[in-house]
Amino acid sequence: MRFTFVLLCSLVFSGLVLGIEYYSDTYDNIDVDAIINSDRLLNQYVNCILDKGTCTADGRSFRNILPDIIVTSCEKCSEKQKYTARKIINYLKENKPNIWTEFLEMYDPDKERTASLEQFLIEDQTKA
Q: What residue range is the signal peptide (predicted)?
């Protein structure tokens, strides 16, 4: 019991020392499969993120943190958020390359972050 308490305190303290602030988990339970398997839902989110249409609250929230996610390669993401981000990116790259290209043109026009995004995608495969 005492060991568990000390371990927990050290983890909390190390997070404070490192200054890592994770993104909110408010939308972690969104059914990503339902979104990517529905052209209507996917297009709604894509239009929001690419400033081509209206946004839901979760779409707007994601659009607001997206530039930071790209710059940091999802550094502030929880493991669940990283899994979700990789799933969506891989889906777009494989099934909707035109949307992926448009996304990169908007959020990484100078191609400064493309390599780090690719590395972020590979990291998941090296853990498996």
A: 1-19
Q: Measured between alpha carbons, how far is residue 76 from residues 5, 35, 36, 40 in Å?
A: 25, 23, 23, 29
Are 107 and 115 a contacting pair, CB within 8 Å? no
Q: Tell me if 30 sits within 8 A of 58, measured CB to CB.
A: yes
The pTM assigned to this predicted structure is: 0.76
Q: Give the C-alpha separation, 103 to 112, whole Å.
A: 14
Joined together, the tokens standing for residue 32 give: 């990503």
What is the sign of the dihedral through the CA atoms of 45, 50, 54 and 58?
A: positive
- Structural domain boundaries in the chain: 21-127
Residues 60-86 have pLDDT tens digits of 988 998 888 888 889 999 999 999 999
**Out of 1.10.2080.10, 2.60.120.260, 3.10.50.40, 1.10.287.3510, which CATH number does the structure's domain 21-127 have?**
1.10.2080.10
**Quick one: how far is CA 17 from the chain centroid?**
24
DSSP state of 19: T
